[in-house]
Amino acid sequence: MKKISLAWQIFIGLILGIILGAIFYGNPHIEQFLQPIGNIFLRLIKMIVVPIVISCLVVGVAGAGDMKSLGKLGGKTLLYFEIITTIAIVVGLLVANIFHPGTGVDRSQLVKSDISSYVTTEKATESHSHIDTLVNIVPTNVVQAFANGDMLAIIFFSVMFGLGVAAIGEKGKPIIEFFRGTADAMFYVTNQIMKIAPLGVFALIGVTVSKFGLESLIPLGKLVITVYGAMAFFIIVVLGIVAKICGYNIFKLLAYLKDELILGYSTASSETVLPKIMEKMERIGCPKGITSFVIPTGYSFNLDGSTLYQAIAALFIAQMYGIHMGIGQQITLVLILMVTSKGIAGVPGVSIVVLLSTLGSVGIPVEGLAFILGVDRLLDMARTCVNIVGNSLAAIVISKWEGHKVRDHHEEQAA
Question: Which compartment or compartments is the protein found in (predicted)?
């Protein structure tokens, strides 16, 4: 009998979770039972992310070897990220202007959610200027950075350590071997954890549906459809053109990443697939030094799905309140989102927090966010998929830009 593939197992878990959540809608006991299962799965993934990023970066950087080539790689990566995220914001604004998802929405029909916890987070991050964000990339205590999962600080330390290992030549060989062994061991652990992914997905989606129900979607149906349509357009057209330019096929990439996309969609967490997409990008020919730098950095600077959503959500709230935003205000919104979406990377509920810090500055009522929080989880699932595809493609683009040959996954399977 043929074994059911992981993608199908996760999909079955997703469907069963939706059915269970719909049956027990409004029952708090289902959350008490399922949430711990979902949390254990997410914790298992978070447990392995930091060791994988550190070990892969140290091996990759020590192999690349010098500050000049690394600086060039960093410059190209950040330039690419800035261009793509700006395009994502512009696409979001164009979609919202064309389809007007917020026009005619009756606010009295909407369920108002509590946004106080996000306001607290936003106030804490607001007190950090963008200069502070830059300063905080350099950790004072690496153990603390590891414990907090502070990805930018971890990347900075790993790059510096990798350069140090490269500089000491022969004496650094055992250190490289140690980290290479660590990376291989952690990828093995990842593959074992993925075996329980269908169970984790079943629990997480069951909790979501039992909490919010499927009825909560009806008043905001137009917003959900607009966001999903924009996300699909962005992946197929925008990222499709980028992939075509560098000689790759976006549909082949989507087929290659189907397991990770279903998992990311179900859990609404890009972190759950970070180890797997790093492993898969290496398998098709992206060098370890590039995947281990580009993909984790992309998790802070290349959140295409999140920035696209933020642009649509901002205009949705303005339209819902009947506020007309002129072209000047929309350009201001683009510029503010370009900065804020980078400045508070790594904050939980980052899309909502970015919107909180953005809306007020362009004259849109912040309270409007309370109306869309009920469907935010569903929108987050779509954002996550775009972020996964965007960062995987970034690794391919930068690898090609650096002159490496990247195969498609059919060639990889043949090899």
Answer: Cell membrane
Contacts of residue 338, Cβ cutoff 8 Å, sequence gap at least 6: 82, 85, 86, 89
d(CA 229, CA 246): 25
Ordered by start, the domain boundaries in the chain are 6-414
**Separation CA 68–CA 254 (nearest Å):** 34
Predicted confidence (pLDDT) at residue 415 exceeds the cutoff of 50: no
Q: CATH number for the 6-414 domain, one of 3.90.550.10, 1.10.3860.10, 2.60.40.3080, 2.60.40.10? A: 1.10.3860.10
Which has the minimum average pLDDT: 147-151, 179-183, 265-269, 407-411? 407-411
Instruction: Report pLDDT digits (tens) over 39-82.
Output: 999 999 989 999 999 999 999 888 766 677 788 889 999 999 99
Q: Is 404 left (phi over 0), alpha (psi -120 to 50) or beta?
A: beta
Q: Which candidate, 195, 258, 254, places its Cα nearest to that of 45?
A: 195
- The pLDDT tens digits for 218-245 are 778 899 999 999 999 999 999 999 999 9
* Structural contact between residues 277 and 294, judged by C-beta atoms closer than 8 angstroms: no
